[in-house]
Protein 1
Amino acid sequence: MADNTQSPGATWLVFAFLTVVSWGVYGVFLHTGQTQMGGGDPALARYKAFLFVGIAYFLTAVLAPLALLMVKGAAFSGYTTKGMVWSLIAGIVGAIGAFGVLLAFGAGGKPGVVMSIVFAGAPVVNAVYSLVSHPPPGGWTTIKWPFYLGIVMAAVGGCLVTFFKPAAAPPPKAKAPILQSMPATARLK
């Protein structure tokens, strides 16, 4: 895969939407995996599901980039301590977040509600953290009002989706078996 960080265009947007779609179905798939896990104990089912999330991360986040780095001849060189530490921290907070999603499901949260809160709240946390870490030139007073409105809209949007999410359709009822009519002679006996 080519490195597109220096090229103009909207390739980044395609990858951003790939992430939106992937993370958009993540909670539902994770909840389904947890509910389909055997063993009888729902808490253990959550841990088993999370174990397989870890295996999936290993396959896609360890083996795939390692193969790409090996092909480019950069698999075992060019690492810095700061880069490795911050990348490990990022992986840890990502895994904590994924585990938090599972725990929320275990505490009674529904995938649509939990993920709405997560995906409305995460951009707000990102924006605030970014502002605290890297204040704009001239300070916070130079930030235009639409930025703050966007944060409020994200929070309100998450609340609206959470509180007014349509209820799922009830599962279809099993049809009663149709009895074959008996011959008239058999009914008379």
Note: The two ends are 79 Å apart (CA to CA).
Protein 2
Amino acid sequence: MRAWIAPALVLLSTAALVAQQPTVNVPKTAPAPTLWPTGNAKPAAADIATMNEVIAFERKMEAAVVRGDVRTLEPMLADDFIFTHGDGWVTGGAPLKTDTKASWLAYVAKDPKPYIYRELDHVQVELHGDIALTLGRYLYLPRTTDTKPATSHLYVWFERVYQKRNGKWLHLSHKTVKGPVRDDDTAN
């Protein structure tokens, strides 16, 4: 009889901890009306396949960021990768922050992990040979140290640049062009 008491206590303790975790509603996202920029002619089937490949790469990258998985993320970033946060720079001001490959990987590796989720939304792909630009937004919920978790996600509109080198996509640059904006902010 004693043999089952310890496993039962572990199970009950785990269930109690899970019950204390706040429920997070990840918002539903959607593809853009077209995979290619609005107003452009429909690309050839081979280009559509490449566009889907870029989107899949971008989703894999976002998932690695949320997990804090720098082993997956590191080879996806070019050595000269730049991440420009916030949209102050588009109005002549300073960006909120600029990351290099090293500083972005260090941020992603933090414990606790910086993000609860990051979901791509309305992403379009523009191809220029071995260069791909993605235009869209991601919705995210940052992890906070508050006892009361954030309930409203944020989003940013972005433009990203990728290049295919030696048969693999590399993320060269991210520029936030609008945001961050709170989902419940009426001044979108």
Note: The helical segments are 2-20, 45-67, 70-73, 101-108.
